[in-house]
From TrEMBL:
Residues 77-107 are annotated as: Disordered. The lineage of its organism: Bacteria, Bacillati, Actinomycetota, Actinomycetes, Kineosporiales. This is isochorismate synthase. It is an enzyme of class 5 (isomerase). It holds the Pfam family Chorismate_bind. Belongs to the isochorismate synthase family. GO terms for molecular function: isochorismate synthase activity. Its EC number is 5.4.4.2.
Length: 377
């Protein structure tokens, strides 16, 4: 059987998949959850749960935005192959038809939430808050996770495309997280750690001159640089106790097919290789790219103003092996799938100077990553 078909079959059978530019990890078979009643507890118990496991076994899956709620990290054998996933072409005929789409909250409600967050910023309660909204697509038939994944991979080869079962994948009604994240939370290989936080964004334009104008405007934007700086400062501060060196250069531009971002490629060297990838996830998450600054005050504002259950959206998704090495991305450009329902999430950072209508447009552009994959013909 061709490898692509084998992977397609594995995904249909409930595999966890992370397909990046350089390699693809597929975890298959019946696989128990890492013990722990919350995402934080699962992260804390992952390294011990892998102790003594056979080479090739990894902990893979998702922890939620709110680490006090349950996570979905599973223990089981995984295979890693070079390059991104190749799945057989899906063909239009197998796609579901969207019967109903519903933005929650509607765009005007989201703009009101942004204004409420700006009120809290101006009152001095908080400096940055990331607010999200959703688009719910109800299809005539069940969504196909392998088809969604195949479209996400082929449209976003530079991102980490992912399919993660949030419930037992053997259950017919299992929920899944699917998406194509451009944001590396961290990669740990031995003592070396690489991170690439994103924050500060502008929608792409199909017109090349306008697209370049927007990229230049983003690079020059004081508002976006401030929005970005909160993330870099928080990441450097969270890493410092674990690291002998942390290097954070100036931000650069990165593009997805839908959005321009400011990105900083941060490199660090661990003091001690007893620090595993999940220790770093627990220390870093949620960064101000998805939460805000200061963290606790921002989480309060999100709870009061946003009104969504984020679940694993804006959580951390990835894997760790028996050596403590691993790779985790921030669960953005993602959706929750269950049966005929697809719930696309997108958020945007709000700081002093943010414009509510621009944040509506930015979140709409971010939703296109999953939306275009879902409604592809
Ligand atoms: C919150 C999301 O994206 C995050 C927020 C960004 C921003 O506010 O500019 C940029 C990239 C991500 O860190 C999302 O896509 O839902």
């Amino acid at each position: 059987m061709a490898e692509a078909e084998a992977v397609a079959l594995a995904v249909r059978a409930g595999a966890t998949v992370f397909s990046g530019e350089k390699s693809t990890l597929v975890q298959t078979g019946p696989r128990p959850l890492v013990p722990g009643g919350s995402g934080l507890e699962q992260l804390r118990r992952t390294t011990a749960a892998l102790d003594g496991a056979q080479t090739g076994v990894v902990a893979a899956g998702a922890v939620p935005f709110d680490l006090s709620t349950p996570g979905a990290l599973r223990l089981g054998p995984a295979e890693t192959t070079p390059g991104h996933l190749t799945l057989p072409p899906t063909g239009g005929g197998r796609r579901s038809t969207v019967a109903r789409s519903r933005p929650v909250p509607p765009p005007a409600g989201y703009a009101d939430a942004v204004r409420a967050a700006l009120g809290r910023i101006h009152a001095g309660d908080v400096e940055k808050v990331v607010l999200a909204r959703t688009l719910e697509l109800e299809a005539l038939d069940e969504w196909s996770v392998p088809d969604l994944l195949a479209e996400l991979v082929s449209r976003n080869p530079a991102a980490t495309a992912l399919a993660v079962p949030l419930d037992d994948p053997a259950d017919a009604g299992a929920r899944w997280l699917v998406g194509a994240s451009p944001e590396l939370l961290l990669r740990r290989r031995g003592p070396s750690v690489l991170l690439r936080p994103l924050a500060g964004s502008i929608p792409r334009s199909p017109e090349p001159d306008e697209d370049m104008r927007r990229a230049d405007a983003l690079m020059a934007s004081d508002k976006d640089r401030r929005e970005h700086r909160f993330v870099v400062d928080a990441v450097v501060e969270a890493l410092s106790p674990f690291c002998r060196t942390v290097n954070a250069p100036e931000p650069e531009l990165v593009a997805t097919p839908a959005v321009w971002h400011l990105a900083t490629r941060i490199t660090a060297l661990l003091n001690d290789t007893d620090t595993t990838s999940v220790d770093l996830v627990a220390a870093l998450h949620p960064t101000p790219a998805v939460g805000g600054s200061p963290r606790r005050a921002a989480l309060d504002v999100i709870r009061e103003v946003e009104g969504l259950d984020r679940g694993c959206y804006a959580g951390a998704v990835g894997w760790q092996d028996v050596h403590g090495d691993g790779e985790w991305v921030v669960a953005v450009r993602c959706a929750e799938v269950q049966g005929r329902t697809l719930r696309i999430f997108a958020g945007a950072g709000i700081v002093d100077g943010s414009d509510p209508d621009a944040e509506v447009a930015e979140t709409a552009a971010k939703m296109r990553t999953v939306l275009d994959a879902a409604i592809a013909r």
